[in-house]
Amino acid sequence: MNWIIYLSGEIHTDWRQQLEDGARAADLPMTFTSAVTDHEASDAAGDMLAPASEGFWRDHKSSKVNGIRTRTLIEQCDVAVVRFGDKYKQWNAAFDAGYLAALGKPYITLHDEAIVHPLKEVDAGAMAWAKTPTEVVEILTYVTRA
User: Fold this and answer.
1) pLDDT tens per residue, range 70-128
2) Which pLDDT value is given to residue 128?
3) Following CA atoms 105, 111, 117, 118 in sequence, which dihedral angle do they give, to the nearest 10 degrees?
4) Which fold has domain 3-145?
5) How many CB atoms lie within 10 A of CB 76?
6) Are 121 and 129 a contacting pair, CB within 8 Å?
């Protein structure tokens, strides 16, 4: 079986690449998908619709266009990894975790111990919590080879 792993959350570090490299090195049968990780492109996703706008309406249009990709890839995944960094608030990642939980999709949260408390509800819905991409690869290795 080829597992489809959806990667959600923080876009300012190379955690996605670390996961993909680790899975490749372990020869795991996986395909990784993700939301658009180019911040400027994501913010401009709805700019082709109707007149140009700023603020709420620009974000609203772009969120809906981005949602086409996000919803589709979440619905198609076997497992998701939801990453929360400490520098920015990843409200979109929290939303993704809630959507995954509502669909009954298993997800792994990935974040530092310093933000356990604010993420207690998100972690409560997760099947596992990891602190490093290496730990996530170890979990994925176990579930695909056990």
Assistant:
1) 999 999 999 999 999 988 778 899 999 999 999 999 999 999 999 999 999 999 999 99
2) 98
3) -70
4) Rossmann fold (3.40.50)
5) 12
6) no
